[in-house]
Amino acid sequence: MPIVEHRASDVFQDQQLHFQVVVLDRQLFIWIGVEPPRLSNLCMAMPTRLDPIPSATSLLPGRADDDIISMSQRLAKKVGKPVALSVNLPANQPLMRAFVEKRLLQELQQLDLVTGEVAAASVQQAANLNLQPAQPTTQP
């Protein structure tokens, strides 16, 4: 299988965002960020047969961002392949990160890497960030 590189850009609240997806034979490399381009973090998530949640770790020294590790796990689960993910966005921007994940899933769906049903559910999850507190359940 040839290596495929896909690039896209979008804007979130006047901030230009860039996406790069490199499709390798058995894994994906995904970079998301703003100008100037840099690789300040890199996480790898791999699906396993032993656990429904893919295993994940940071590949660069320093403290890994838990949100990025979680995003790499969700992506690996959705595409069924190992995912190397680098996200270089401004700190403390949860809405931007949700937008980025939603937009990335659209790109992955265009590349036929995520099934339409899984992608639609994922986009809906990302859109529902402002979840209401859980309603108390009554015990019978």
UniProtKB/TrEMBL annotation:
GO terms for biological process, alphabetical: proteasome assembly
Domain of life: Eukaryota
Annotated InterPro entries: PAC4 (IPR032157)
Protein name, per record: Proteasome assembly chaperone 4
